[in-house]
Design goal:
With about 230 residues, this protein is an alpha/beta fold. It has two domains: about 150 residues, Rossmann fold, CATH 3.40.50.1000; about 70 residues, DNA polymerase, domain 1 (Orthogonal Bundle), CATH 1.10.150.240. About 40% of the residues lie in helices and about 10% in strands. Strands 5-4-1-6-7-8 form a six-stranded parallel β-sheet. A two-stranded antiparallel ribbon has the order 2-3. α7 links the parallel β6 and β7. About 40% of the residues are buried.
Length: about 230
C-alpha cells in the first residue's frame, strides 16, 4: 500500500500571501487608472490565480478589458510579484509543525494550487520549505486546474499516492469542490481567502488552526471515508 498523501492548497491555506497578492494586483490596477483594492476586500478576488484576480477587479469597477490587456496585466502582475517575493508572505501559524508531524508519521505532502508552478516553487524556495513537498503542482502543471478534479488526482499520482488514501486541505469553495469531485476527503481551514464561511460549501471537516490537524484527526477522517 502506498504512503498516505496529504495535499495542500497554497495561498490562504498553507501560506498567508494576501498582502503580496494585493500589492501586485494594485500595482496592475493603478497602472491603468483603476483605484486600488482595499485589504479587507482581498477575499473577493483570490483563489483562481492572478488572471482571475485582474478580471474580477475590472468587473467590480465596471471596466472592460481591451484586447490583449489581460495578458499584459498578468505579465505585469507576475513581474511585480516575483520581484518582491517572498515579501510579507509567511506560513500560517502551526503549518510547519503540521508538516513535520505528518512527515514523521510517514505521510507524503504535496501542493495543488492555482498559482503558477514557477511562482509556487519560487515562493516555497524563498520560504525554505520547498523540500518538504514531494510535488508542487500549479495552475499550468497540467492541461487542467482546480476545480477540475484531475488536478488533484494527478497531484496524488505524481507522488505515487492513491486517492483512496489521500486528503486535501484547502481554504475555498474551489478546493472543496475539487476534492469532492475527486472523491477525496477535504479539510477546510476557516482563516483563508473566501468571502463566505467554508462550512457553507460542505467540507468533510473544518479547522481554525493547524494545531487541530493531527495525524489522529486525519486517520479518523480516512476511516470514515472508507466506510
Amino acid at each position: 500500500m502506498p504512503a498516505p498523501t496529504i495535499v495542500f492548497d497554497l495561498d490562504g491555506t498553507l501560506v498567508d500571501t494576501a498582502p503580496d497578492l494585493l500589492n501586485s494586483l494594485n500595482h496592475c490596477l493603478l497602472s491603468v487608472g483603476i483605484p486600488a483594492i482595499h485589504e479587507g476586500e482581498i477575499r473577493r478576488y483570490v483563489g483562481l490565480g492572478a488572471r482571475v484576480m485582474i478580471e474580477r477587479a475590472f468587473a467590480a469597477h465596471g471596466k472592460d478589458l481591451a484586447e490583449g490587456q489581460l495578458d499584459a496585466l498578468q505579465a505585469l502582475f507576475i513581474e511585480h510579484y516575483t520581484a518582491e517575493m517572498p515579501g510579507k508572505s509567511v506560513p500560517f501559524p502551526g503549518a510547519l509543525d503540521a508538516l513535520e508531524r505528518f512527515a514523521k508519521a510517514g505521510y507524503v505532502s504535496a501542493i495543488c494550487t492555482n498559482k503558477l508552478e514557477t511562482l509556487s516553487l519560487k515562493l516555497l524556495d524563498a520560504l525554505e520549505i520547498a523540500p518538504r513537498f514531494a510535488a508542487i503542482c500549479g495552475a499550468d502543471t497540467f492541461a487542467f486546474r482546480k476545480p477540475d478534479p484531475r488536478h488533484l488526482i494527478e497531484t496524488v499520482a505524481r507522488v505515487g499516492g492513491d486517492p483512496a488514501h489521500a486528503i486535501m486541505v484547502g481554504d475555498s469553495r474551489t478546493d472543496i469542490d475539487t476534492a469532492k469531485a475527486a472523491g477525496i476527503p477535504v479539510v477546510a481551514v476557516d482563516f483563508g481567502y473566501t468571502d463566505r464561511h467554508v462550512s457553507e460549501f460542505g467540507p468533510s471537516r473544518v479547522i481554525s488552526h493547524f494545531d487541530e490537524l493531527t495525524v489522529e484527526f486525519i486517520e479518523d477522517l480516512l476511516r470514515v471515508a472508507a466506510d
